[in-house]
Amino acid sequence: MELIIDAIITGILTGGVYALMASGLTLVFGVMEIINIAQGAFVILGAYLSYALAQHFHIDLFLGLLITMPVMFVLGVLIQVLFIRPLKRDRTMLSILVTFAVALIIEGVLTILFTANIVTLKAPYITQSFRIGNFYLSYIYVYGFLLSVVLLAGLYLLLYRTKFGQSVRASMLNRTAAQLIGIDVERVSALTFGIGVALTAAGGMAFGATTAFNPGSSYDLISRLLTIIVLGGMGSLSGALIASLGMLIIENVTAVVWSPTWSSTVFFVLLVVILILRPQGLLGKLEGRKQ
Amino acid sequence: MITARKYGKPVGLLALLGVAIAFPLVFSDPTYTTIAVFALIFASAASGWNIFAGYTGYIALGHAAYFGIGAYALAIICQRYNIPGGWEPIYLIPLCGLIAGVFAIPLGAIALRTRRHTFIVVTIATFFIVQLMAFNLRGLTNGSTGLDMPIPFQWGAGYQGGNQSIYNLPFYFTALALTIVALAVSWFIRHSKYGLGLLAIRDDEDRARGLGVRTGSSKLSAFVISAIFAGMAGALFAYFIGSVQPQFDFDPLFDLSIALMTFLGGIGTRAGPILGALVLEFAQQWLTLYFTQDGLYLILYGVLFLVVILLLPRGVIPSLQELWAKGRARGRIGPLVLPVKTPVMSAGTTSPPTATRMTGQAGETAHEEVPR
Question: Of A186, A279, B150, B240, which has fewest CB within 10 angstroms of its CB?
């Protein structure tokens, strides 16, 4: 029983980090109707940036985010402007291919710079843990969770309390109508893509601090992130939150009561069952006919 | 023009077939024939994928699952029934395709409950589920170690092992046969009432249903047909490689490769996927051969992806058809009848296409943008 409670707590804490990574993905989908396959590669890139800063300049992982997040933001905007904006027809499909190409290039660059060896981030708070009641919690899980909460709250404020957020939400509701009332949808798209990528810098640091990684880790990540946003309903931020918490709790509990090898399978089976009952996901809108 | 069209096409196709048959005999260097076998395997898979994705407009990115199922089916059958190397595994390839097709029925039915973007993501998810099964069902698949195929050491009289250039030949002709079958099925479907129904689904699914197209069963059957071709390609691939492993036979790169090949040639066209597969697979194998450093190869392949998509988003065949139709219109009728100047078109294939409508001229295979 204690093990199960422990698994649930770990699930909630790591689920927060996944929510951070998935929210960027679902936000980009909501605004641009494109699926960013490179999100997993961006997470790994973010992890490596933090790794490089910590190794060569001895910058603390959390302080380093002040550098890596703006860098990743600019990178995201550039990729949107250079590669995604020129796509005029078959946007959905071609954007998948383009972002996959970006993911391949990132993986290649990282392999050349850092080799394919598995690395871990190092900091005193990663190895230390503290005790609440009968449970031992690692500091990094708590810090990573708090970081996610702060950033997600910031994202919420940006979306619901600013004029830019209003344009983002308007573009999500109806791209054409937003254009008609004078919103520069292309600019909003570029900035949204940048924000989505910048969030992965933080998510990547928290991911890299809890998991060993190499340039090829992005495939496993992107499959999880995609299932999270499908389960939550594509384009729904709160759906992505619920789905990532649910996924990580289910995985951790399955790993304890059954076996770690089957932990993702249980989640995938659950995904299939939910899709049979609710094809649009937990909080998604039913896709109807669009004119 | 009519006579040229009537006789030109079969003669051209026969000539192409002759070139394809003569190729391994002329270029007997195993380096070339190996690349050619891979290219043809991918051509058959891409052509099968196009039957579903190109005609219905539903983009499925999980066909690596059926590719892998076909590969594992052949490996498991060969191991359970002690089938020796040689021609027998090749006769079993259609059966492996059918097994992949059986798996595609429930998986396709679940995925097809969704549409458009969600469908894409669900097919990716089903792929990862199946890959996970290949890792985890150790009793059947031997986990991440994989299974060995029987060694095709003897191809009957005269095909003794050791000579690599002869060793490749049976694989080459099997792959060629698979490609021709895929092309023929694609052609028949494109010219049948069933194929018209699929095209109607691509253009407007709800209206197609209103007009009496059985959208559900049409979509599912096209999905299963394309999965059968992916499974057969997978089985042949596994036999050629000599072993099956979860990470190579369930490869996410496979899905994106066949999708890119189809897009390069022209999605929804009959010959496009095959053209794209031949060009891209040769390019990819060449890159792997000459840039052995792991990361560099990935970068170059990514750049190749980007160049293809950004320069030729419509694909080679639609762009050529458009040019040809335009040239013909200009030559025969002259500028008098051309209603409006078409300045956007004049830049040729390299210009990013605007949504210019040339559908009447561009022929029935032009993939028209559906207003969304």
Answer: A186
